[in-house]
Amino acid sequence: MIVIAKMKAQAGKEEDLQKAVLAALPHVEQEEGTLVYAFNRSLSDPTEFVFYEKYTDGDALTAHSSTEHFKKMLTDLGPCLDGAPEIVLYEEIGMVKK
């Protein structure tokens, strides 16, 4: 299960958004079914961020979304966002891993 989540920060709130996510990462790292949780910032637009997430299955995604640290992150992100995040679920077809 792959998740791509795109979000845009309000101008001047980029660092607050980044801090909210970075605070959650140590907790996400402990989740058994979360294989990859990468947080990225656009090189061309510093207000645009994207997550690349990989889970063992849908149950792992549900478990991640139910954690207290995820809920806190969402609460902290709310005032920083410029609009609703765009979230799309994907099925992995192939991958190169080095």
The average pLDDT score comes to: 96
Q: How much beta, percentage-wise?
A: 25-35%
The total count of strands amounts to 4
Q: What low-confidence regions span 5 or more consecutive residues with pLDDT below 50? A: none
Q: What is the makeup of the main sheet?
A: 4 strands, antiparallel
Give the domain tally.
1
CATH fold type: Alpha-Beta Plaits
Q: What's the helix count?
A: 3
Strand/helix succession: EHEEHHE
How far the N terminus sits from the C terminus, by CA atoms, comes to 20 Å
CATH architecture grouping? 2-Layer Sandwich
Q: What form results from the Cα inertia axes? A: globular
User: Spatial order of the strands in the main sheet?
Assistant: 2-3-1-4
Share in helix: 25-40%
CATH class designation: Alpha Beta
What is the rounded Rg? 13 Å
Please characterize this protein's 3D structure:
The chain is α+β, with helices and mostly antiparallel strands. It has a single domain (2-90), classed as Alpha-Beta Plaits. 35% of the residues lie in helices and 29% in strands. It has three helices and four strands; from the N terminus they run E-H-E-E-H-H-E. It has a four-stranded antiparallel β-sheet, with helices on one face. A hairpin with a 6-residue loop joins strand 2 (34-41) and strand 3. Helix 1 runs antiparallel to helix 3 (68-77). The chain is globular. The two termini are 20 Å apart.
